[in-house]
Specification:
The structure holds 2 protein chains of 2 kinds. By secondary structure, chain A is an alpha+beta fold. Chain A contains 5 helices and 15 strands. Chain A is globular and about 50 Å long. Chain B is 53% helix and 18% strand. Chain B has a 6-stranded mixed β-barrel. The radius of gyration of chain B is 31 Å and the shape is elongated. The mean pLDDT of chain B is 85. The chains are: A alpha+beta, B alpha+beta. The A-B interface holds A 51-52, 91, 105, 109, 153, 155-161, 179, 181-183, 185, 187, 214-217 and B 66-70, 106, 109, 111, 165, 167, 169-170, 172-178, 207, 209, 267.
Chain lengths: 246, 436
């Protein structure tokens, strides 16, 4: 009888998982970073640790205008990088160095000042648009019941070919993301501890922990502060803004 | 003719003075000749060494525009390229097909970034002859074997047989991880150490997410450096008649490398399928030619500056000569020597001095070149790229040498002209009365 009960419960659980619209869940997760056409700005403080080295702190002010897919990253710390920045205009990403006063073409996939974070972590991406759900299952992460979603990239142009997401069952909030290489090896784990900042009616994780699974002991912590949602001046997304920002 | 003979004899009357003046001229000529010789061989040596490293003189690369507008380096099918090469009459000593990844090698907590060339070792048998092995072997290279330069091996603390982790991106930009087994360590190839690691194309392709028969660059190693641009033009024309190609001459900013200008233009273009870029080693090394141009200009400037200083010395010396020989000039004028002959006497003397100095300078430069050329800097020298088999080499353009000797002669004559004119203008009676 007990065995039958277990089988029935398992079957029910599979049926429930099947009934869950995971694509809609991904859209909901994406929408947490969507401020309905309003601009977004925040300060990210990134503390990177490497074995045998002192932790390094980088602070970046991020300005986003998602309706036109524009962004500006402005480095506030460390002092030697203060005033450097990235600017996305149309499809091009430019890196600005105040020492030379020059803009150089860059890529969104470059890592942020030698930390485990990548520029793409600071800009908006879309799980629903970039990935297909290959598999789903249930599990537990700490005190939370979670959906475990195995995602496969729709094309070969996103950084990670495979991503495993741990999504809270009670709310569509990601607690953990595991990023895999094309060869199938776990390259990094991104944890989103359940502490959130409310902005523009959305809940945004206030801390993100990124662990490099290839280089043992290397990790970075991103902390979000000074979050604002609302119209930014148009000239924020221009070269002159970065030039005079220092 | 008699004036010339007299002038030649006059030179030997004050041997020490002639030797010093001629020596100054010789020194200037020697310096300029050495710079010219170095600049002449510089292009040849750099081109030769680069052609060995890049495995060719004429290159074809395929670029595919991704749906998101990124440029992806890939050659999917080279049947039409092979046909085009045949039609263009490209007679290559070797043809190579390579892929390359930019990666980070990791071992025991240490990291080194470098480019790894994916090579078909069976087809590129000549590569084995060019790599100076420090340890290990290229025979029976395992599929995941890697050949790394000594400085990288030292940095990572690895030896042959160790396994390394490599993080890289696929050809379309996705993160990937693999493992290499160190099969051999090669001697330090100097400043190009960061681009001279080699692995099997099969495994590099796997890491790049390319199919086994795909690759990124087709290279033709020509029998000699001359004619590579013409070969590139012919190949471009033939490839263009069969496939989509980029223009050979991209409008670039002044001083910009032609290949970089070409690539910048590609960013702004859109197309579907694979489009091909035909380049030559000369395009890649356009900056080297600029260095040579700078060296040649510098040699001319040095020549002029040195000779301005030497000219002051020559003018003063010829003035002294004039005063020393003032009674002699008076006597010669009194017995019928014309003003022009007196002037000619001085100018012939200056010309002999210039030519003697130039010949001595060329001889001294040849000796220095010979001596320096004998020094073996070794194949692992940091100067490797400008050396020829580990030796400094020089190549003189004889037309340029002749031009510079002519400039030296002209400047020496110009320096001696004023004292020569003054001597010619002397009144014989006054000259004979002058006490020296």
């Amino acid at each position: 009888m007990k065995r039958v009960m277990i089988s029935v419960l398992a079957a029910l659980s599979v049926a429930m998982a099947g009934a869950q619209d995971f694509k809609a869940m991904l859209r909901e997760i994406d929408s947490l970073g969507d401020f309905g056409g309003q601009d977004f700005s925040a300060t990210y403080t990134i503390v990177s640790e490497k074995p045998g080295q002192k932790p390094e702190t980088v602070q970046v002010r991020v300005y986003r205008r998602d309706e036109r897919e524009q962004f500006v990253f402005l480095f506030l710390k460390p002092e030697r990088q203060k005033g450097q920045g990235y600017l996305k205009v149309d499809d091009n990403v430019w890196f600005y160095d105040p020492e030379s006063g020059e803009f150089a073409k860059s890529t969104i996939k470059e890592s942020v000042q030698d930390s485990e974070a990548r520029n793409s972590d600071l800009s908006r991406m879309s799980y629903a648009d970039d990935y297909d759900i290959e598999k789903s299952s249930e599990g537990k992460l700490g005190a939370y019941d979670v959906w475990i979603l195995e995602l496969v990239s729709k094309d070969s142009e996103v950084s990670w070919q495979r991503v495993r997401l741990y999504v809270r069952k009670d709310k569509p909030l990601v607690l953990k993301e595991e990023d895999f290489s094309v060869s199938g090896r776990l390259m990094r784990t991104v944890s989103f501890p359940p502490s959130y900042i409310s902005a523009g009616g959305k809940q945004i994780p206030s801390r993100i922990l990124i662990v490099d699974e290839i280089n043992s002991g290397e990790k970075s912590q991103l902390t979000l502060s000074d979050v604002a949602v609302g119209r930014l001046p148009d000239d924020t997304f221009t070269e002159s803004f970065l030039k005079r920002a220092r | 003719m008699q004036t010339a003979r007299l002038a030649f004899r006059n030179l030997s009357r004050q041997k020490r003075r002639s030797f010093l003046l001629g020596g100054a001229i010789a020194f200037g000529v020697m310096i300029v000749t050495l710079i010219d010789g170095f600049a002449g061989a510089f292009v040849d040596n750099v081109s030769e060494n680069f052609s060995n490293l890049l495995a060719g003189h004429v290159f074809v690369e395929g670029v595919e525009k991704s749906p998101k507008g990124r440029d992806l380096d890939i050659i999917r099918d080279d049947a039409a390229l092979r046909e085009a090469a045949e039609a263009a009459g490209i007679e290559a000593k070797y043809v190579s097909r390579r892929s390359a990844l930019q990666g980070s090698l990791k071992f025991a907590g240490r990291t080194a970034s470098l480019a790894v060339q994916g090579v078909d070792f069976a087809a590129e048998s000549f590569l084995a002859e060019r790599l100076a092995l420090a340890s290990g072997s290229l025979d029976n290279l395992p599929r995941d074997g890697i050949v790394i330069p000594e400085p990288i091996a030292d940095k990572l603390g690895v030896e042959t047989g160790d396994r390394l982790l490599v993080t890289t991106r696929t050809y379309s930009g996705q993160q990937n991880v693999g493992e290499f087994a160190v099969a051999a360590v090669i001697k330090d190839p100097g400043i190009l150490g960061s681009i001279s690691a080699y692995a099997t194309r099969d495994y590099v392709n796997e890491l790049l997410d390319l199919a086994p028969d795909e690759y990124q660059a087709l290279s033709f190693y020509l029998p000699s450096l001359s004619g590579m641009d013409e070969a590139g033009d012919r190949l471009h024309a033939e490839v263009s008649s069969r496939l989509q190609t980029f223009e050979r001459e991209a409008p670039g900013a002044e001083g910009e490398n032609p290949i970089l200008a070409m690539m910048r233009g590609e960013d702004e273009e859109t197309w579907t399928g694979v489009k091909y870029r035909v380049t030559t080693l000369n395009d890649a090394l356009a900056q080297v030619q600029q260095i040579v141009d700078v060296l040649e200009t510098a040699s001319l400037v040095i020549l002029l500056v040195l000779f301005l200083i030497i000219m002051v010395g020559i003018t003063n010396t010829f003035r002294i000569i004039m005063y020393e020989r003032i009674r002699e000039i008076g006597t010669m004028r009194a017995v019928g020597m014309q003003r022009g002959q007196v002037r000619g006497l001085f100018l012939w003397e200056a010309l002999f001095l210039a030519l003697g100095g130039a010949v001595a300078g060329l001889a001294a430069a040849s000796l220095v070149m010979l001596g320096v050329g004998l020094i073996d800097f070794g194949l692992d020298s940091p100067l490797f790229i400008i050396l020829k088999n580990g030796h400094m080499s020089f190549r003189l353009d004889w037309a340029s040498v002749a031009l510079k000797v002519a400039i030296v002669a002209f400047l020496t004559l110009a320096a001696a002209f004023l004292p020569a004119r003054s001597a010619a203008k002397l009144d014989p009676a006054v000259a004979l009365r002058t006490a020296v």
